Amino acid sequence: MENYEVLIVGAGPAGSTCARLLAEAGLSVLLIDRDRFPRDKPCAGWITPAVLETLHIDPQLYRRERLLQEIREFRTGAIYGSEVVTDYRRTVSYGIRRGEFDHFLLLRSTAPCILGEPVASLERRGGGWLVNGRIKARLVIGAGGHHCPVARALGAQPARESTITAMVAEYELQEEQLARYELPAGWTALSFTRDLKGYGWLLRKGKFLNIGLGSLAGGNLREQVLNFCAYHQGRGHLPAEALRHLQGHAYLPYRNGGGRRLVGDGALLIGDAAGVSYPESGEGILPAVESAVMAAQAVLRAAGDYRQEKLDHYPAAVAARFAGKGAGSGSFALPAAVNRLGAAAILSNGWLTRHLVLDRWFLHRGERALDLGCQPNPLAPLPSS
Ligand SMILES: Cc1cc2nc3c(=O)[nH]c(=O)nc-3n(C[C@H](O)[C@H](O)[C@H](O)COP(=O)(O)OP(=O)(O)OC[C@H]3O[C@@H](n4cnc5c(N)ncnc54)[C@H](O)[C@@H]3O)c2cc1C
Predict the structure, then answer these.
(1) What domains does the chain contain, in order, with CATH numbers?
(2) Does residue 374 have a pLDDT over 70?
(3) What's the pLDDT at 217?
(4) Average pLDDT over residues 207-217
(5) Nearest-CA neighbor of 156 among 246, 89, 228, 250?
(6) For ligand 1, what atom is nearest to the CA of residue 14?
């Protein structure tokens, strides 16, 4: 029998961040993931500088061995319509590759981990948990994404929830394609659907093209994505082979008071398992990391007493951090107030696009990064992949 204070299910950005913080604070933590790393993950790989800041990642060091594409301008507009170019003249976002990024975070965590084993059974035993029939833990932290088994144990019913669904393809341009490819590295376009419940994107990061579409509207997402890809193929922006790499996934946007139960006796959810992604943009990496930081702080504060009432600081901290972000708008792409103003008018106006759509809803400018609340060894020697 293996015995741990804390078992974290899922080694994505949420799980590995939380594991690192708890292990550095001296707790015995085990991280478990059904996949072996580096693993692929359907994602655009767009992050804001706040992600690096919160995680104390030095961009210069990170990019020595990994892709870190600077993004300085966005092209935005209604899908298949004309575009407004917003040039910030400095880096306001980055493009990463999820396989590299998640592996990097995992390697930085000093917690032991089991990879390639799914959590298949989770039994409440004597005030703690017995996992997969052999791992004992006093607290389980669910970081296993939308279908996380810990979320199910806390009552989540993923099939009944209203999710963001998204499909994406990441394609490596071949040498001969690179020679004649016209969009420069860092080129980023966001194309909002007519119902304003979603948007498509095309992003070039280094040698990679990332194209996809996400929506809260449900319906035939695959058809919408294929049409969007065909449009970019027609413009000469997308090689036909890229479509072979299309993958899809669903996850929950944050909803004030209407989301998942985040804590129970001896259990707590973070990241996509908790449903904390931003409703306006679908950005999930930053909220995953932030929820992991807040969870680690709540666990340390509970000081070994993991009854629900001792963990209740955590849902309160999550609500304080995420409340008001798109709450109640029901719209993925743009909040209700913007919706009423008329999407076409806003998306064709340079000032509104920059200050409302990009600064406020996508880049969260003016918000302070979360303090890790501990002294990490400035994220230790950078691990090699
Ligand atoms: C198409 C698409 C594009 C996106 N683009 C962006 C973007 O550009 N920027 C952004 O910020 N966000 C984006 N997101 C959202 C983002 O990917 C997620 O919000 C983010 O990955 C959440 O991190 P996490 O650590 O909570 O979960 P994940 O990264 O999903 O990690 C969960 C881990 O749990 C493991 N796991 C699951 N079940 C089990 C089990 N039973 N046992 C053991 N392990 C298990 C999985 O293998 C996985 O490694 C996108 C999402 C999609 C679908």
Answers:
(1) 2-161+253-362 (3.50.50.60)
(2) no
(3) 86
(4) 95
(5) 250
(6) 25
